Amino acid sequence: MHSNNRLLFVGCGILSKPPRCENSWHYINHSRHNRNICVPRRVSISCKVQVAIVGGGMAGLTVAAILQQYNVDYCLLEAKPYLGGRVATDNVKGFLLDHGFQVFIESYPEVRKFIDSSRLCLQHFEPGALIRTKTGFHLVADPFRRPLFIVQSIQSPIGNFSDKLRVAWLRSRVSTTPRQSNHKIFLSTEEYLNSFGFSSSMMEQFFRPFLRGIFSSELQEQYFEDFLFIFSMFSKCYASLPSKGMGSVPAQLAASLDPHSIRLNTKVESLRGLQLELNSHEQLIAQKVVIATDGPHAAQLLDSSSNIPSYYSSCCLYFSSSLPTPVSLPILILNGNTESVTSSSIINHICFPNKIAPSYAPSDRNLVSVNLKLDETKSSVDELVTKAKNELEKWFDPDLVREWQFLRAYRINSALPKRTCAVMSNPPPTKVSDDVFLCGDYCDSPTLNGAMASGRHAAEQVLSSLGIKCNL
């Protein structure tokens, strides 16, 4: 066989490992990973593999890591030129630009299982938020971790004194009570919070923009158990940014994998039974298949959208500045101006990432992350930039904002899955057949933890179907 037609799938059973030669391998050095990944050239043959994993996001990487731990041969197929899916970071002119607003929460149970947080050089956000209203900026701090800010928080016009007592009680409750999912109760986050008697000021100026920034959806569309989970996680640790960007999280997981079991730039065009048709015109026949893509792509491969939810979109604009930032605290800034909510306002929250993690920007520059309430698909990027800067000129010194230089926009069409009460009353499946499994954040919760938990669950099902006992 000519060297250009050699293909390696670990454990495929019909091909032996070919020698590495310049004519048969591409070497991709992706800046996010800082390592070489070997990718075989296109060939026109069929091959067999024990487990095919479709999708190299956090769910797929978790599946691969577990299968490798149990010495199960697998082939991970990723359509993009890099691993990590939506958890990615680009280096643009020395700025680290995460693909949309993302934070790392080291108290996530799945993170504790699979990620060594100490190697990420985490830099923390100030707990709480700075909220912009028509009367200015007001601090809502975490009194448990920032007791010196208690008086300032109590005097803040965001909510009333009873609201702050309710938040403290809720925080204590979720941090001490074991999480017990009850999928027979279908409440939205809005209904759940209203049941506590929170004022409209607290709901509209704090909870709505804060949780919209996390779940890319409105309170009435969020499932209350997802809120309880994320609120408990925030109560246990700081929200952080890794010093090398969020892309360093999947990079750490990927670094433990056998690069010969990974195929980048490889899209699965169709799935027929256990036969995968690749964009390289190859055919891959697997004993087991794990579909670890987002929901829309999973539905496309299965030729069915049954029980697979649609996704919310998001949009993030990045700017650079040579001037000082208008806010020096490493904190999230929420749009709590209720009057702007019903007007032409497009901003949900902003932050200055290099104030949290200095490595996010060159030493003589600052990075501005502007996150929109929703992705205005009918607006061009230029229009969004103009609208955002015009709005921010009302927040800060106009001359300061005018100096900000646009870097890049990230429109994420499939940012997070919809987890409404209607979806949760008929949740998506995690198993299509005895040999085909599904995983992704839409199968668990719209978080990094949810993606990894669903990947672990899929790996456990695969191992069980192969007769392998596992203890994870």
TrEMBL record:
It comes from the Eukaryota. InterPro entries: Amino_oxidase (IPR002937), FAD/NAD-bd_sf (IPR036188). Residues 58-463 form the Amine oxidase domain. GO terms for molecular function: oxidoreductase activity. PANTHER family: AMINE OXIDASE. This is Amine oxidase domain-containing protein. It comes from Galdieria partita.
